[in-house]
Amino acid sequence: MIWSKEETLTRQEIEEIQLTRLKETVNRVWEKVPAYRKKMEEAGVRPEHIETLRDLAKLPFITKQDMRDNYPFGLFAVPKEELVRIHASSGTTGKPTVVGYTRRDLAMWTECVSRIAVMGGAAKEDVAQICFGYGMFTGALGLHYGLENIGATMVPSSTGNSEKQIMYMKDFGTTLLVATPSYALRLAEVAYQMGIDPKKDLQVKIGLVGSELLTEAMRAEMHKLWGDDMLVTSNYGMSELMGPGVSGECRYMDGMHINEDYFIPEIIDPKTGEVLPPGEKGELVITCIYKEGLPLIRYRTKDVTRLIYEPCKCGRTTCRMENLDGRTDDMLKIRGVNVFPSQIEEVILGVEEIGPHYEIILTRKDHTDRMEIRVELLKATDSYRELEAVEKKIKSRLRVMLGLDARISLESPNTLQRFEGKAKRVRDLREGI
Amino acid sequence: MFIKQLSVFIENREGRLEEVLQALKDSAVNIVSLSLADTCEYGLLRLLVTNPEAGQEALKGAGFSAMLTNVLAIRLSHQVGKLQELLQAICGENINIEYMYALSTGKDDASIVLKASDLRKAADALAAKGVEIVTSEEIQAM
Fold it and tell me: Strand A332-334 and strand A320-321: pairing?
């Protein structure tokens, strides 16, 4: 099923909507947001220079730093009394980034999430359990309103108390789970510990996972624990742009459909800022063209992907963004090699003797980076030889994947920390040179 | 004829061994004999206990990776050269010994626990020599 007719427009129709809305948005920020006008003046561009969609490239980028510099409301395009909701990022580094919504913004958000939920298989009959933390984080409330809008029965269980989460699933007949991929795996683990087999004793058949990367290895692990018939799709968004609902996967799982009547995607070379031709991989830049409260223009997401414009088998004509490899700011540089934690995850999930949880610890000694990876041994053994073989297997696969050596630390099951929100799997303890 | 040995994976970290012992104590499983090697990162703790199944359950419940392995327990008299004779019998059959450790039966003997590449063949070779094998019933009663 397709939720809205806007998802099946012709390219020409989409672009007409985009151009009209882009012009309106640029005019509005020029009038209402001094910080934007200043940036545009510095770049030598005025609203009347935007005549075609290609002219978007003339506009300056907005980064997370701009949001911090204008903390809390400096980039908002409406007076505060027009706002009906405020959310904020966790702000682990420095001030949080604050986002605000007008009534129309919330309606748009709900519409966007309804679309991606339906794409991921959700319907009115579903009992949807949201295992994201409710609060300042956009994930929970965003998914909540979007799913409620399509008529699903909402179970706003939030995070924490995993045993109770499983009890709700069983007693309420939850069919749809919203969580980070790592928390979804954790919940399955808890169910097994309680003597409940998620495949047989629970009815969860849809997983809408987000807020963290969903790698193919992670998806396979989800199927292993929750059942092969579970439809596990990823969706994408970030609070700066709105929250979840910017894009999502349909059941063909060949990239995430972008809600293009609300967002214009571009791919740039992260070093030069040049726009790359369609199909090339680079940093995703998003322009919000229908938001009133905080209409970010050319926001640098730091996410690396490529855009696919061919129509999808599902019937939607919207542009898709390939599932992410990682964020440019998640990328680790180890002994000069670029490493995405998702690459390490892929190796770990492929080794059946160990569990899906891991921790990467980076240290530096004698000017050399050292990487240690802690994993949990699931397979019981009576043989040192077998333990060594497991270590060797992980090491050699990492060497093939990354060209790097790592120390592998085997641990007992359930020793590594579990995460209910975004998993923090990297500890970078490198100091000095 | 074989005895079920409890094998537990433990990280080489303060307090881990104690946690294993606590779990066994809580489920009233008595330890008859044990072996633990001095290694860097982790070790395998091997235990003969009065109730291996209950011990394994208790350890799994406490989050340990634990399994049961078949081993042979052999009663030897306290005499010079006895162990050597016994090994000769096993090695003569081209059987590899993977590990062995002492078993205290509380009597005046020098018993051992051993794991071999082919446990059945090792047991047969020893039986042919007239070696006395300790049964799991005996272990349970210890």
Answer: unpaired
